[in-house]
Design goal:
This protein is mostly helical. It contains 16 helices and two strands.
């Protein structure tokens, strides 16, 4: 490497973690915090909606499904756009869209108008999450990437839990509209701060000479050293001009991409079915709205704790084994949860452990998807994997009422719910077996970090 050139990955990996990187990760945390809050809001306000509008559980399914379908559309559309024109602009537009959509939802007066607005909101939510995951991954050194990205992504599950806690306080005082007003005002208020402080992706800038000056300024803020006259390059060799989507299936990635998508589908199927329908299921079982919201919040709260603890394990023993064991453990707890419906403390503990295993492991899947693809398709890889997860969330949330009714009892319902979690664990296990077969196109699972 010439003294007048440098690789962006080597710069970030060799430098100490700077206050500037902490700012970037904190901004990503705040974005996914409000993303999680707005994503889960419909589930927490569902019992109040049913009471005010006289709805049957099945009549809420379109509102659940529309928001999650919007998430899928946003993930599919915004990922390739972000890889083409830059992550920051797409992120700002996404935050604007879901902020306006959530605020407008507070003024809906029918399930039809709420359903349409949830779709619009979902488009913005679907664009923000994969972009934040990509940015936090790129600004983290390899030796601390798992835990730093985890802390950033944990804002999502923290936002889900915060939604339950706030809903329990706000709905009795101000009604369900108050929850949505908070969910819309906060991201809109954040936009000027994001426009000012959030930088562009370092790898996106490194892949284009026209961003050279901006990239040098960012690197100087990270390292505290001058890079005047230095050309900063991406670590990857220039890719052939292809659609970003094609990179998901070439160079030996096709099977692994499909396995990753299956794991995403199963994980988010269970996660969103629970966050959407657990409060209603608990209310029908005799709990009041406040207690139902608090128990429902145990899913994302467990996910927040699980994401951090599992990330520490994954940094040491690799992601695949930890993820497979986490899903298998969650499946066992899910199968036992139906027997605890009459014990609120035992039920809350079980729901916490489900969140720990399922939502906590989801963070690992997010990071795996961010590291499997080249710069030219990184946001696309993350967003399309998440889009497959969104399709699982749509199926889970829209079929929730039918599954609850068809199961007949909570015991049978939770037995059924354990099946897709086992399937996700199997997909991760096969990914692990493939990862330990080194090839030119696909590196083996990284060795444990000891730093």
């Amino acid at each position: 490497m010439s003294q007048h050139t440098a690789r962006i990955g080597e710069i970030i990996d060799n430098a100490r973690i700077s206050p500037y990187q902490i700012i970037v990760l904190t901004l990503c945390f705040l974005i996914v915090l409000v993303d999680g809050f707005d994503t889960a809001a419909i589930g927490y306000i569902a019992p109040a909606l049913r009471e005010e509008w006289g709805l049957l559980p099945a009549q809420l399914s379109p509102a659940f499904g529309a928001g999650l379908f919007g998430l899928l559309v946003g993930s599919l559309v915004f990922g390739p756009i972000a890889d083409a024109i830059g992550r920051k602009r797409v992120l700002l537009v996404s935050v604007l869209v879901f902020g306006v959509g959530t605020l407008a939802s507070a003024y809906a007066h029918s399930i039809e108008s709420l359903t349409a607005l949830r779709f619009v909101t979902g488009i913005g939510l679907g664009g923000a999450m994969p972009t934040c995951i990509t940015l936090s991954s790129e600004y983290s050194p390899a030796r601390r990437r798992m835990i730093m990205v985890t802390l950033s992504w944990s804002g999502f599950t923290a936002g889900l839990a915060l939604g339950g806690m706030l809903a329990a306080q706000i709905i009795p005082l101000f009604g369900w509209r108050g929850v949505l007003m908070i969910g819309g005002i906060v991201p809109l208020a954040m936009l000027p701060l994001l426009a000012w402080l959030m930088p562009e992706s370092v790898r996106f800038m490194a892949s284009s000479p026209k961003h050279g000056d901006a990239l040098r300024k960012v690197v100087e803020r990270i390292t505290g050293s001058s890079y005047a006259g230095v050309t900063i390059l991406d670590d990857e060799r220039p890719a052939q001009v292809r659609s970003p989507i094609s990179h998901l299936f070439i160079e030996g990635r096709a099977v692994r991409t499909l396995l990753l998508w299956l794991a995403f589908f199963c994980s988010l199927f269970v996660f969103y079915l629970l966050t959407s329908w657990l409060p209603s299921l608990l209310k029908d079982a005799g709990y009041d709205i406040a207690h139902a919201a608090r128990v429902g919040a145990m899913v994302p709260l467990g996910g927040t704790v699980g994401a951090i603890l599992l990330a520490l394990l994954m940094d040491r023993v690799g992601p695949y084994r930890v993820l497979a064991c986490s899903y298998l453990g969650a499946a066992v707890v899910i199968a036992l949860t139906g027997y605890l419906m009459g014990d609120i403390y035992g039920l809350a503990a079980a729901v916490f452990l489900i969140g720990f295993g399922v939502a906590g492991a989801q963070n690992g899947l997010n990071l795996v998807s961010a590291t499997l693809y080249p710069t030219t398709a990184r946001v696309t890889g993350v967003s399309w994997a998440m889009a497959c997860g969104r399709s699982g969330s749509i199926v889970g949330s829209t079929l929730g009422a039918w599954l609850i009714a068809a199961a007949g009892t909570p015991v049978v319902f939770f037995h059924w719910l354990a099946i897709p979690v086992v399937a996700g664990a199997a997909a991760i296990f096969v990914l692990y077996r493939l990862s330990i077969r080194p090839s030119a196109a696909w590196p083996a699972e990284a060795p444990p970090a000891h730093s």
